[in-house]
Request: fold
Amino acid sequence: MNDLGQDLELRLVRYFTVVAAHQHFGRAAADLHVAQPALSRQIQRLEKHLGARLLDRTSRGARLTPAGRNFLPRAHALLQAARQAELAVRERAGTGRITIGYVEDLVITAAVRELRHRHPGAEITTRYLSCRDVGALTDRRVDALIARAPLPLAADTVVTTPLYEEPRMLAVPRGHPLADRASVTAEELAGEEAAPCAFATADWTSYRILGTGVPPADSYEDKLELVASGRAIAVLPVGDRRSSLRPDLVTVPIEDAPPSQVVLVSRKGDPNPMIRNLRLAAEAALTAPAA
Reply:
């Protein structure tokens, strides 16, 4: 039975869309910065209000029920309508609000500082996203995303603005035959017997496991551990300073690798005027870090 006499809470609707995006209560709770038991209780409140089960809890996470699949596009529409109403009022009042997502190794402080300088009355927040959180733009947890191209987003659904490019570097353990080189070429890397071409990914940022019997690694830190142990090599943008935090790793410039491109991405047709303002501030303030 639903909660008669009570309005549908948009907060609960948003919680549901985030769980649906992650298909996992634990990851959704971390993204929302709430405790997992509390999130589960809030979803149960929503299900009670609607009079239908929206999510099935499984050993691997959460799966949408038929009712959940039916409700999900309507949930997104509700949140979008509320957002548009808020934007209309804020635009009329001369204020603004934006949440900016940024990923992995990128530092966007200069752009945020410039945006706040240009629009001191706006509410500007930032949100760090892991490599698994690219969906935060699609499901409206962020209004714009600063990341490295390419992104797994349909080109006809987003607006992409190039900001700057960075050359590539090789990361290897100390003592590696290439560790003392001033630079290397892609052809040299591809020709190594122990390390066939490592550049299988579309954006040329990758790491290659050497030999057999090495377990796969998901996190960036675990991949660096494999590189440090001599079981992998990595190709990274020169602006990614995380490998330099390990004294057992050495980075070497790659002369002829295609550059890594940093872009600003927003949803096509989003009426939020702060997105254009962010684009102008980012273009003015963000530049490639010194190699």
In short: Residues 192-205 have pLDDT under 50 and may be disordered. The radius of gyration is 22 Å. Residues 66-93 form the longest helix (28 residues).
